[in-house]
């Protein structure tokens, strides 16, 4: 049985999925719980006219994928493996209902070589019921702070909760980033007698208030607050250069677009140099 203490990884035989396994095994080592490796086997397996030996070969290939993934896990980590027939996005989204965290590689065995992130990773990140980590970058477990994007709305609460819990487990700091868009540029603001720095200070105050309960809860975690003007993706990508992990919400305030993933999470999933955690607000899942 799976529980919220379970960290589930999708494995498909790719190197990228093995990086995801390495990241997830370290997560379990640091935070406890159990690691679950899941492979979604092609639904062709269910076709009634397939020869028995083709079915057997497919099943053997599936178990080879999970066995090879299990080999990169420290034997002290509690581990279970599972093969499920179905499309990878459907199987993994269903897994997310019983997992505390779902971990994926950026790419798999399919797709165009030039794609930065595959369709399974995007679909699962959009639809998962639990937080998802897409393991980007050359080194899955690299040092550095946890960078978190704070929109400044109530959706920031579960995002900050995850960021601080990860930072505390890793013994690193949190860099909390909030950006805002001035409706006028510097020159117009100056001629209208508007001091944009005053607005920076207002946003800074709001960010400090949002972070304050987490500072109190995690006194061991050093915090840096960053307020900047412009695009959240640009600033988060800059800050992610030295980060161990970047944590963002699934959607920002532009949820009326109907998209399940906002532009910030999209940009990070495509370009971040480190693993990206996407945390959907509970109300978004409802
Ligand atoms: N069949 C599968 N079973 C389990 N996990 C999978 C499966 N396919 C993909 N994944 C997970 O999703 C991650 C990203 O793979 P994805 O399928 O998105 O990329 P791709 O194969 O390069 O592109 P695409 O499938 O869009 O052609 C993998 O690293 C792995 O963690
Ligand atoms: Mg694929």
Summary of the model, kept short:
This protein is 42% helix and 20% strand. With 286 residues, the chain is of the alpha/beta class.
Keywords:
Rossmann fold, 10 helices, alpha/beta, 20% strand, binds adenosine-5'-triphosphate, elongated, 10 strands, 10-stranded mixed sheet, 286 residues, binds magnesium ion
Q: Kindly report how far apart the N and C termini lie.
A: 24 Å
**How many structural domains can be distinguished in the coordinates?**
2
The level-1 CATH class of the largest domain: Alpha Beta
Helix content: 40-55%
Structural category:
alpha/beta
Largest sheet: 10 strands, mixed
Bound molecules: adenosine-5'-triphosphate, magnesium ion
Strand content of the residues, in percent?
Answer: 15-25%
Lateral strand order in the biggest sheet: 3-2-1-4-5-10-9-6-7-8
How many strand segments? 10
Stated plainly, the CATH topology of the largest domain is called Rossmann fold
What is the 3D shape?
elongated
Give the oligomeric state.
single chain
Provide the gyration radius in Å: 21 Å
Uncertain runs are none
Mean pLDDT across all amino acids: 89
How many helical stretches?
10
CATH architectural name of the largest domain: 3-Layer(aba) Sandwich
The ordered H/E elements are EHEHEHEHEEHEHHEHEHEH
